């Protein structure tokens, strides 16, 4: 059922022709991390991937503060040899 709702969300967002919808599509594609062809700037799979990441971010923000999330990120980076 959740997958169906996500597909409907992407379908509706794809069909909308407003500037706000275009900005939302670009934002979700950016979140997805997918490289898009110049001839096809948005795909439904990129929108789904971006929406999944957006919902994960929002859920994280509901459970942890931004400083806590930054501390988690720093500890993960440092544990993996990054410079934080």
From TrEMBL:
**Keyword annotations from UniProtKB, A to Z:** Membrane, Transmembrane, Transmembrane helix
Q: Which parts of the chain span the membrane according to its record?
A: 39-58
Q: Per its UniProt entry, which superkingdom is the organism in?
A: Bacteria
What is this protein's name?
A: Uncharacterized protein
């Amino acid at each position: 059922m959740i997958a169906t709702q996500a597909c409907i969300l992407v379908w509706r967002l794809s069909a909308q022709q407003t500037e706000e919808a275009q900005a939302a599509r670009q934002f979700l594609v950016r979140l997805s991390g997918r490289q898009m062809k110049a001839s096809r700037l948005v795909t439904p799979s990129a929108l789904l991937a971006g929406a999944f990441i957006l919902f994960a971010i929002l859920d994280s923000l509901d459970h942890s503060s931004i400083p806590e999330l930054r501390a988690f990120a720093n500890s993960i980076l440092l544990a993996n040899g990054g410079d934080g």
